[in-house]
Amino acid sequence: MKWMIRVDMEGLTGVVNMKQVVPGAEDYGFGLQMLKHDLAAVLEGLLQAEEDEVWLYDIHFYGTNVDLFQLDPRVTAICGKPHYGPENLAYLDGSFDGMILLGLHAKASMPGALLNHNYEHDIIRMSVNGVVVGEIGLEALMAGEAGVPLVMVTADSEGVKETEALLPGTITVSVKQSFGDTAAACYPPSRTAALLKAGAMECATAAKRLTPYTIAGPIELDMQFKPGALLDKLRVRLAAAFIEADRMVLTGDTVLEAWNQYLIAKSD
C-alpha cells in the first residue's frame, strides 16, 4: 500500500513547549529525538509488505526536521516545505491509499489544548464554508480533494478529540494528556511506541472503510489574525480579500486553491 505522512512536532511523545520544537532552540534536540521515535514506530506499523511505500511531507517550520539516515528504503521524504498548489494537489493523488498526520496538535480555538495553533501562531481562527478547522481539518480537506482519506492522527489528547469530533472513525493515537498550553501528562516512549505501531497496523483496514473528507465548492476560507507583521503583509498583498481589519476571506473552487493564495501571499 502507499501512504502519505504529514510530519509535525508539537504532538510528539514528551513534547510540551516550543523550545523543544523550534530549530536552534535549546531543547530542539529532544524534539528531534522524539520525532525519530514516533516516526520509527509508525513506519514499522505501516511497512508490512515489500511493496509498501511511504512518502513523508515535513510540515514543521522549515521542513528539515526528518533524519533521512533512519528511513527505510521504501520511504521518500519531501523536505523544504514546497508550496501546496492546484498543480501538485498538495503532493497527493489517487495512487495513495491514505494519509497519516503524525505529531499534530489541536486548533487555536481548542480550550485547554497543548501548544495549539493554526500553522502560524498569528492565525486566530480558520473556517471553510463555516466549518471551523485547524491544521488537522485543513490537511484532511486538501487530501480529500485529491481523493485520499485521512486514516490516522497522532497527537495530544485534545488533538485526538478534535479529530474524533470532525472525522469519526479516523484512527487516533494520543501520546500525552494535555493539561493546558505548556503542560501534559506524558507517556514514556516505550508505551507510545506500542500504541503508534498498533495504530499504524490498523491503517490498511481503515483505509478501505474511510472516505475522503470534502466540502462542496465554491470555497470560502475565512481567516482571522492577530496584529503583527503577517497581518500587515497580507493587508497589502491580499487587500481585496479583507472584510474586516483583521479578517479576510479567500475564495476558490477548491480548498487547495484558496489556501494556495495564502501561501503565496505570506511568502517573503
Automatic annotation (TrEMBL):
A Pfam family matched in the record: Peptidase_M55
InterPro entries for this protein: DppA_N, Peptidase_M55, Peptidase_M55_sf
Coiled-coil annotated spans: none
Gene3D superfamilies documented for this protein: Dipeptide transport protein
Protein name: M55 family metallopeptidase
Native organism: Paenibacillus baimaensis
